[in-house]
Amino acid sequence: MDDRDVELEALLAAERGPSAAPSPELEARLWARLDASVRALPLEPALPRARLPLGWLGAGVVAGLIAGTAVGWVLHEPPTPAPQVVFITTPAPAPFAAEAAPVTPLPVEPVPGPAPRKEARGGPLTQTLDRERVWLERAHTALQRSLAEDAWEALEGHRREFPAGALVEEREALSVQAQLQRGRPEEARAAALRFRARFPHSVLLPGVEAAVAP
Amino acid sequence: MQLEQVYREHLGFVLQSLRRLGVSPGRVEDLAHDVFLTVHRKRGDFDPARPLRPWLFGIANALASNERQRAHVFREEPGERDAIDQGLSPEDHSEQGAARRVVAKALDALDADKRAIFILHELDQVPVSTAADSLGVAVDTAWSRLRAARKQFNEAALGLLGSAEGGPRG
């Protein structure tokens, strides 16, 4: 081993070893996003099967909620306790604990828009994102229950309050699904085309296109 | 095993892997999220008899590869890369800090496929057969890429060391 080999080995040795621990703030922020995504995944085992391929879009929207919110979304205190999500490594995974949890039906009557959370912490950006998420989570949950008009109303609520919000991409993806559930396939296809033109690299695009595929 | 446990124990590794793979600083956090969401969704594919980190790296590499195809979200000018990009403190003037910056820049000289096997084997010290499995390539292919990667890396690193000392290295 000559001097160059020794130098190269020293370089690699410096880079090896344990990775630096992420900051507590980053760890908490990223977990909050991940947790929100896992919560919003379709609850197929516990719910009546949706008439439309919600799984694709639901999972995609969850991913998009993350990809689209690369802004400082610091949750010092999650709005609700984190679910116990079981990481299952068997070939045939059973439903997650979070997925099997009983769900509360949405109210049949139209409900007003999400009120500001008094307990919300953080700056205005955090609170705004929180309100956006409430609208979209309501829409997503309604779609899972095939309550198309409730979903559409929630999406319209988001559209009115946040016409250019941080989660527009997710809203428009859910809108395609909502139009399908409302029995408006032509509007859904048109919305899907607009989505593709506006968000050509979106992680939600495969789900959107699968939803309107013939 | 719980997702949160995997997340808490391996977040640092995933972030480091994404940086080493060349993901731009502004996208590292998003992709780390996507890695763990993929872990959650593909949990049934994981063989618990195998080590977890190479599997995580394989997911990170696949996502980074997708990102790479979107050139606009990756660094387009190598000159933009600096110590911060690699998660290294620019204030770290220690010998180790300098060495790690050289490694980070030398990794940029590698093709994507070679880079992945080099990181997994030479830096994370994963056996080639395990690394090949994690990256979805044949063992022979992994060895071939590794040999080429070592050559490229060594040339780049020695060049960087030479320029740092005021002249090229022979």
What summary fits the major beta sheet of chain B? none
Average pLDDT of chain A, rounded to a whole number, is 68
What ranges of chain A have pLDDT less than 50 throughout 5 or more consecutive residues?
A: 42-53, 66-121
Helix content class of chain A: 55-70%
Please indicate the percent range of residues of chain A in DSSP E strands (runs of 2 or more): under 5%
Outline of chain B: globular
What do these coordinates show?
The complex is a heterodimer of chains A (214) and B (170). Chain A is elongated, with a radius of gyration of 21 Å. Chain A is mainly alpha-helical and 214 residues long. Chain A has helices spanning 3-15, 24-39, 54-67, 97-100, 124-144, 148-161, 168-181, 185-198, 205-212. Helices cover 55% and strands 0% of the residues of chain A. In chain A, helix 3 packs antiparallel against helix 9, helix 5 runs antiparallel to helix 6 (148-161) and helix 6 (148-161) packs antiparallel against helix 7 (168-181). Chain B has 170 residues and is an all-alpha fold. The model of chain B is unreliable at 76-86 (pLDDT under 50). Helix content of chain B is 66%, strand content 0%. Classes of the chains: A mainly alpha (214), B mainly alpha (170).
In short:
Chain A has 214 residues and is mainly α. In chain A, 55% of the residues lie in helices and 0% in strands. Chain B is an all-alpha fold and 170 residues long.
Task: Fill in the keyword field for this structure.
A: 214 residues, B: 170 residues, mainly alpha
Topology:
The complex is a heterodimer of chains A (214) and B (170).
Chain A (H helix, E strand, L loop, with lengths): L2 H13 L8 H16 L14 H14 L29 H4 L23 H21 L3 H14 L6 H14 L3 H14 L6 H8 L2
Chain B lengths: L2 H18 L4 H17 L10 H17 L26 H14 L3 H12 L4 H8 L3 H26 L6
Helix pairs in contact in B: 1-2, 1-3, 2-3, 3-6, 4-7, 5-6, 5-7, 6-7
